[in-house]
Amino acid sequence: xxxxxxxxxxxxxxxxxxxxxxxxxxxxxxxxxxxxxxxxxxxxxxxxxxxxxxxxxxxxxxxxxxxxxxxxxxxxxxxxxxxxxxxxxxxxxxxxxxxxxxxxxxxxxxxxxxxxxxxxxxxxxxxxxxxxxxxxxxxxxxxxxxxxxxxxxxxxxxxxxxxxxxxxxxxxxxxxxxxxxxxx
Amino acid sequence: xxxxxxxxxxxxxxxxxxxxxxxxxxxxxxxxxxxxxxxxxxxxxxxxxxxxxxxxxxxxxxxxxxxxxxxxxxxxxxxxxxxxxxxxxxxxxxxxxxxxxxxxxxxx
Amino acid sequence: xxxxxxxxxxxxxxxxxxxxxxxxxxxxxxxxxxxxxxxxxxxxxxxxxxxxxxxxxxxxxxxxxxxxxxxxxxxxxxxxxxxxxxxxxxxxxxxxxxxxxxxxxxxxxxxxxxxxxxxxxxxxxxxxxxxxxxxxxxxxxxxxxxxxxxxxxxxxxxxxxxxxxxxxxxxxxxxxxxxxxxxxxxxxxxxxxxxxxxxxxxxxxxxxxxxxxxxxxxxxxxxxxxxxxxxxxxxxxxxxxxxxxxxxxxxxxxxxxxxxxxxxxxxxxxxxxxxxxxxxxxxxxxxxxxxxxxxxxxxxxxxxxxxxxxxxxxxxxxxxxxxxxxxxxxxxxxxxxxxxxxxxxxxxxxxxxxxxxxxxxxxxxxxxxxxxxxxxxxxxxxxxxxxxxxxxxxxxxxxxxxxxxxxxxxxxxxxxxxxxxxxxxxxxxxxxxxxxxxxxxxxxxxxxxxxxxxxxxxxxxxxxxxxxxxxxxxxxxxxxxxxxxxxxxxxxxxxxxxxxxxxxxxxxxxxxxxxxxxxxxxxxxxxxxxxxxxxxxxxxxxxxxxxxxxxxxxxxxxxxxxxxxxxxxxxxxxxxxxxxxxxxxxxxxxxxxxxxxxxxxxxxxxxxxxxxxxxxx
Lengths: 184, 108, 617
What we know:
By secondary structure, chain A is mainly alpha-helical. Chain A has helices at 3-28, 32-53, 56-81, 85-88, 95-121, 123-131, 138-152, 154-183.
């Protein structure tokens, strides 16, 4: 066990524990604003996980979008809709709670087992999967991503941009139509 | 055993992503507040994103295609949330409620 | 002549097209007049007559002439079922007989059925019958024989049940058809069994349908490679087809039911041609049957038993058509006896003489029935000789021939008898004479009741057409006498005459003192109810009905209960599952998770099991 591994494991376990704790807190927080806050923390920690994997660019994007931009929209939504009802709408303990709990638990076991099973099945490939650690530096990754985004996947980027534009236009049109109907 | 725990590999990231995904799904299912449901949906998206990046980092270390797709994925997730919020707002104007129990139009 | 032989297959096709033309013409209202139907029928049968005569001349000129021409009809892997024609002396002889009787009966029924509403349908059926009968006669192998065998049965069913609106008529048609089907099933089993024997032991794919060209060699091979039991079983199964079609002992009751049909149909199908098809098949399979003495004895015994039972039953019947039907039955039994104890040729000769004579008698019976206003009871008839002299004398020609005193009937009867004596079948010979005695008795009884004495019932003048058509048949009855081979044995002639006179005197005495004669209880019942054959049939069908009742109770209470439980389960589960439809997206999501869990778990289980077992190996 060398120093790098220890650091790596500390960062991984720290961030992942934070993510899981704040994700659970998000669900069980009794005020919607608190759950949004916890969620933001969890998203920041996810950015940290990305950092530990060497995907710095992704981490930045993650923090920018999920950590900042999306919560702002959520905030606006909460502002528009916050009423007294917000407190009563908390968690439901309908049968679906138990159904989903049991099925999620079992699925979790199954997936765990299947990953183990895959390791058992193909030791070589598993070794390949687990042994090979990334040796990418920050600049490497940024260079590669910019190269990939603007050279290899340039067309996809354009397509994506057009899609997003059309979505935004669509949303506004939808709103306008709805409002008109409302007026009538 | 100890070695296995501290030797962080793909397996650990996958398990993390899985747990996060399930927490998100659980939240989606049991929450009553629609905004909370959407937040939990974000958790699920993030879990998938972690999967993407983990596979990209461990398996495909040269071409970084996974990183790029993860960026697309993040952006799409943000847009999706924007659309979902708009739809939610439109619904809200009809019902004046953020409780999902009041939206039961799906049973015919 | 070879033109006729090579194109003889058109004889099968032309009546079929005629039937189709008539039926479709009626369907599309193109053919509305009876005249057109008459012309179509007449032309098709005349055409058949020409070809039959042509082919007959060919076989007459060349002794031992054999011609086969087949086309592939059905190819199943390596098995090739063929249709076509096989022509030899027997074929052309029987074909000519069938065509002639068919033509005369058609001419007769043009007058007989004139006032019937379903005139067109009747003639379509007659043409259909011609088609199936000629196909049966020309068949080159057992496959085609079986196909046309069934077609003949169907046509017979259609014609018996021609006046289907009458309940008893349609019931009789069904009974006749079902009894025929029993025999046909055994026949099919026999064909399959023989095919299996050929295939398994000889490996001869081309001859599994027993082509008649190679009949003697194939039968010898079958006999050579099977044990006695299997051989006899095969033969008996094949024999059952003949038994059912020719109305022999265990399955003989259908012929009496068949008399519910129109009288021309009885004349054509149920006396002359179709019922003779069983004998025709016996003759065709004679090379097979003749290999085993047991089979021949079985055939003879069945024949003589049928002849005795039916002759005895005919003694006291009062229905004119029933008497003739029982007589037909008895004569068919004698044909079986001839096949079993004498030879196929003699049987064919008897078949011929009987066919003409019996068709004649039936046609006259039809005239008599019309004259008596559709009354078939002979006790209400009488004195018709003065009203219908032509009918009376042609009838006399027919019964004298059938009794074996003169004409063609004499020759065939005498040949059977002398052959029986020659082969030392003395018991059969004695029983044969008993049958002959009874034949004379009941035929003359019918004659006395119908044509002599005082006129009892109303009388209606029949058309000239009806009266004079049977004369054509009488010509054949007489004319064949000169064609048949003769072997005059003075002793037998004398014996015949003695029997005839004795029977005539008995019959006359019984007729003269008909009001004073007491009915002997058991013997009269035995005769009048035909050895309780119908009661036996009813008993069997009652057993079946009991079974059906039990099954129906099972169906009613157990099966329906089960289905009710099933429906209850469905209803309960629907009630339960409808509770799951909350309309909430989240619950659907949770179900999807559950399903995902199960499917993924099942997949993993199967996959790991596969891996485990493959690793174990």
